[in-house]
């Protein structure tokens, strides 16, 4: 079944609508409509919001209709979120940044100084509009968003869900592209991974993809912000609070500029997804395949068992392991925290449900 998408080029000067059933068709139609004078094989497609490259039909299927994509040739580079957001702000806030010298000065400063400039827009935002919710009440806040997004809360909830889908797809891609999956004996590895991914997705769906994290009207136990929508940085992955003495705060509900800047904030895995969680999932599968299941509940060895999907769900998608951080506090080096092998015997697995 075909879905409708929106596609633009690196300059974002022209946006076109494309109905396509798969990635190949989407790229071919986009090339034609955007008048790309190159072979479709030389083109790449990226999600405009976060720069993720779409390179197969599986990931395309996870994206909602009307997602905006950037189509690039092999010679073109994806404009980073940071620079693109800055250009958006500069074009809409000329009173604060005079073209020429100020822009040059901004781009030549380091990351911490850049965010000091962003603070000017945050400070200049109209507090009176913060608590407004409907599109009709604060239309400027919704500029550039889909018409289906009627309230700020709905829009922010959607952003949180997109991040969760991204984590799921990253996990799915790593597992399904592995030798364990592709070359599994008698298909056992493939069956184990497929079942795990089904269970993982069901848990996400039952929790509405944790959209509550960015929804200020949700229960305080689930959201990451205050009643007004103020978010505070949690600090580096291995400390309890941010070291920047309340400098790292933002309310994306207040203005369009803050909503855009908020996309540079990260949900940081304290136990890292790629370096630790996914490798431990593989170890769990390998143990099960070898008939060596150490049950984390009864702490006994068994020849048959299951992977503990709940434990890995908590580590990948929940606040048990996720911390919202300002980009300055997002440490990209290796974290010392590690995941473990979580398997349960059939008896303990049944007792839990």
From TrEMBL:
Keywords: Apoptosis. The keyword Lipid metabolism does not apply. It comes from the Eukaryota. One of its GO terms (molecular function) is DNA endonuclease activity. The gene is LOC106119030. GO terms for biological process: apoptotic DNA fragmentation. SUPFAM superfamilies: CAD & PB1 domains (SSF54277), His-Me finger endonucleases (SSF54060). The keyword Endoplasmic reticulum does not apply. SMART domains: CAD (SM00266). InterPro entries: CIDE-N_dom, DFF40, DFF40_C, His-Me_finger_sf. One of its GO terms (cellular component) is cytoplasm. PROSITE patterns: CIDE_N. This is DNAation factor subunit beta isoform X1. Residues 1-80 form the CIDE-N domain. It comes from Papilio xuthus.
